[in-house]
Specification:
Helices cover about 55% and strands about 20% of the residues. The protein has 6 helices and 6 strands; from the N terminus they run H-H-H-H-H-H-E-E-E-E-E-E. The strands form 2 sheets. Strands 3-2-5-6 form a 4-stranded antiparallel sheet, with no helix packed on it. It starts with a helix and ends with a strand.
């Protein structure tokens, strides 16, 4: 149906439209408000746990806050927790996510992210693994890190690691390596 010129000017029809629109979106707005409140609770709990040196708990809380309401400050704290856990590869990857879309951060916060990323980058070593056997499993500290041929060197936290190569029909090879960076 077409609206008559008078109906378009009638303030009560605009009010009805606004009331219907608000009525349709109220549950959605309430869900958003609930998600924000829950995310804030997780974020605050993450801060408390981080200050208590419970990095695993802090990581879980910040991650849940980020899942509920994505925000660069939650990601920044996730990156800091990874750094505190001695997981510089994950820290750098998290900081890279922030720097790829720093919306919502002021220039000082972006600079802090860049500085911490650079510091963590210095804690990463690269390990190139080559074999004559295709599809061999490359392990680092007993966890699968890839299959040969690797497309790029493995990024690993500096320090001592057990690196292994395992392939069906071959004797597994494992060596302890001290990666200096």
């Amino acid at each position: 149906p077409r609206l008559s010129p008078n109906a378009r000017r009638n303030p009560s029809s605009r009010w009805l439209f606004a009331a219907v629109w608000i009525g349709l979106t109220s549950p959605a707005l309430a869900q958003i408000a609930d998600a924000k409140a829950e995310a804030r609770d997780h974020f605050d709990r993450g801060l408390r746990l981080f200050n208590q040196l419970d990095n695993d708990g802090a990581l879980a809380e910040f991650t849940r806050a980020q899942e509920l309401v994505p925000h660069p400050m939650a990601l920044y704290n996730i990156g800091l927790v990874y750094a505190a856990m001695g997981r510089p590869v994950q820290a750098v990857d998290t900081f890279d996510r922030i720097l790829s879309a720093p919306t919502g951060l002021d220039a000082a916060a972006v600079e802090r992210v860049r500085m911490e990323r650079q510091r963590q980058l210095g804690q990463i070593a690269e390990l190139e693994v080559t074999t004559a056997v295709p599809n061999a499993i490359v392990e680092v500290d007993g966890i699968e890190a890839g299959r040969t041929p690797l497309k790029a060197p493995l990024r690993i936290a500096r320090g001592t690691h057990v690196v292994g190569v395992v392939a069906a029909g071959y004797t597994p090879l494992r060596k302890q390596l001290n990666l200096l960076g």
